[in-house]
Structure formats: structure tokens, C-alpha cells
Amino acid sequence: MSFEENVRKVIPYVPGEQPNRPNMIKLNTNECPYPPSPRVEEALQNLDADRMRLYPDPTASELVNALAARYQVNPDQVFVGVGSDDVLAMSFLTFFNSEKPVLFPDITYSFYDVWADLFRIPYQTCPLREDFTICGEDYLRPNGGIVIPNPNAPTGLLEPVDNLECIIAANPDSVVIIDEAYVDFDGESVLPLVDQYENLLVVQTFSKSRAMAGARIGFAIGQPKLIAYLNDVKFSFNSYTMSHVSLAAGKAAVEDETYFQEITARIVRTRERAKEELRTLGFSFPDSKANFIFATHERMGAKEIFDRLRERDIYVRYFNKPRIDDYLRITVGTDEQMEALFAALREILL
Ligand code: PMP
């Protein structure tokens, strides 16, 4: 007998690489290529280091109130955490507590099965159709909860709200989590359904559309009952998840709606131009509504393109997994970064 028999063994999620060289082009982790709102910078400069002596507000009320105002809900409908990864992990722990399997797509955010394994939650995956759309009927069987990203990652496909509403309405005995990490790039949110469905939890993040992946801020919106259950678990785990820094920076970001609209629109414009260029180069892809494009090439294998881009210090993401191992996930960068990517692809492919 060794202590190792009693260790909780897990196979961890593997995040994208974070190299940081001055001239590299980093299109591999769906970050925003623009800086956060100038108001965030201002808020950081106004932070008083002496405040760090004190614990932050455990209820994160300033940030929660700012989010409630922005999304027109009550503060008791908002939960915040250390990136949406933390919010999702807490949600799995809180709501997926059944013997029945949790359901999610077979091609999806690869953290879901990791949390399920970590928390010993049974799960089953529902195969996407050949075109990567969701087959709604798969979510009508008995289950212990459902999680679906919309747009899905890494495909970028946006599922119409009506289809998701059918799934939410058909599962009143399960919590349905819609992970909207990428919804701000011209997607349609299910947030308007929150008043109607007490089993719906919508999760979003500051990491993409608010250009703050490094601040680690995510949030969930649902009916007060769901949020209260989430807070009970959070306060049984770690009361102080949000630092003074992230509370101040997050509040400043939410309050700058103009900047938010400006940078998300800019990314959408660049994405649509990138689609045209990629098509010309012989790529095909699901019609992304996210800040990335999931593309496969008519002639050259994805791994080879990935390696050859990397030699040129251009990083995109490659997943060596069934059904998607001939695709590259390319984050939408600035117009300039995308031009450099296309120039490299022309060299590699033509
Ligand atoms: N959900 C999805 C679908 C994602 O792709 C990501 C980004 N890795 C996250 C959640 C987590 O993002 P964050 O923790 O930075 O909010």
C-alpha cells in the first residue's frame, strides 16, 4: 500500500502555449489583439497598494452590480469568478450532482470532460452532425445536467437560440449551462430566456470580448435560486476569489460600453475579411461567429501547416483529436497580423 493509492489522479486540461516573443504572431488562444478599455488602465493606476493589506469584498459587489446594470438583471442573479473556467468548475460542482450522465457535444471545449473526471461526474458526449451542428434530440434523454458552448469551441458555429430553448425547455429537472465565452462577436445570447427558465445558467467571460484574459474574470447569470446555490458552494471552497485588482479592473471594463462595441465590431470585420481570404487560399470552415476560424485545407494537412507557420513564429492551435485532427483553429488578430498570416500561408501553400 502506498499513499499513491489514495491520490486523486487526473489527466489535466492542456492550455494553449503562451510564448511571448516581440515579433511573434500569436493566434493560438483566442485572446483579444487589442488592449482593454483605457478606463481599465485608469482604474489600475488609481489602485492604492495599501488596500492589499485587506481582504477584498467576498461578495464582489462592485463588479456584480456593474454587471447587473449592464445586463439588466438583479444583482442576486449574478455570480463572478476567476475566469469562466472557475465559474464553470463551480457550476459543475454545484449542479451536476446526479448518478445520471451529464451531456455535452463530442467536439467541444476540452475542459468539460476534465472537470467531470475531477469531480467524478458521469458524462456522455453527443456527437455533432457531420457539419458540426448540434443534434437537439440527443439532449432529450435522461441526464444529470447539460453544458453547451454557444458559439461552440473550437468550431465557431452558433446554434440558433430557438434550438437551445427546446433543449432547456425539455429538461426542467436538469441545469442547462450555456457557455457563451464567444457570444459577443455578433452572436445571439440566450440571456433573455433567463427569466423564463429557472434551470438555465448563462456563463460569459472578460477574456475575449473585453480583452482581459490576464485579469481572470468570468461570470454567470441565472435566476436567484441558482446563483444562491452557486454562492453556497463558492463560500464552502474559497470566499475571496476576486482580488482588489480584478474587481476594480472588471468594473471599469463593464462600464465602458462604447469601447466594448468598438473592439468587438472591429474583430467581426476582420473575421469576415479573413473568411474571404482563407477561402481563396483553399480552406473551408464552418461559418464562425466567434473570434476564431476553424479551418481545414483542401490539399495540405493541418499539422503540416501548423508546423510550417510555427517555423515562421506564427502560432495557431492544432488539436490532435478524432474528427478534428485536420483542422486549425485560427484566432482573429489585428488586420496587420492577419495579413502576415495570409502572406505566410501563400508561401506555404502556393
Ligand atoms: N469556455 C470556452 C468555450 C472557452 O473556449 C474558454 C477559453 N479557454 C473558456 C470557457 C474559459 O475562458 P476563461 O476562463 O478565460 O474565461
Task: Please describe what this structure looks like.
- The termini are far apart.
- The radius of gyration is 21 Å and the shape is globular.
- The mean pLDDT is 97.
- The longest helix is centred in the last third of the chain and has 24 residues, at 257-280.
- It has helices spanning 38-45, 61-71, 83-95, 112-118, 161-170, 224-234, 244-255, 257-280, 302-311, 335-349, and strands at residues 25-26, 78-81, 102-105, 123-126, 145-149, 176-179, 200-205, 218-221, 283-284, 292-297, 314-315, 317-318, 328-331.
- The chain is an alpha/beta fold.
- The chain contains ten helices and 13 strands.
- It has a seven-stranded mixed beta sheet with strand order 2-8-7-6-5-3-4, sandwiched between helices. The protein has a four-stranded antiparallel beta sheet with strand order 9-10-13-12. A two-stranded parallel ribbon has the order 1-11.
- Helix 3 crosses helix 6.
- Residues 83-85, 109, 149, 153, 179, 181, 205, 207, 213, 218 line the site of 4'-deoxy-4'-aminopyridoxal-5'-phosphate.
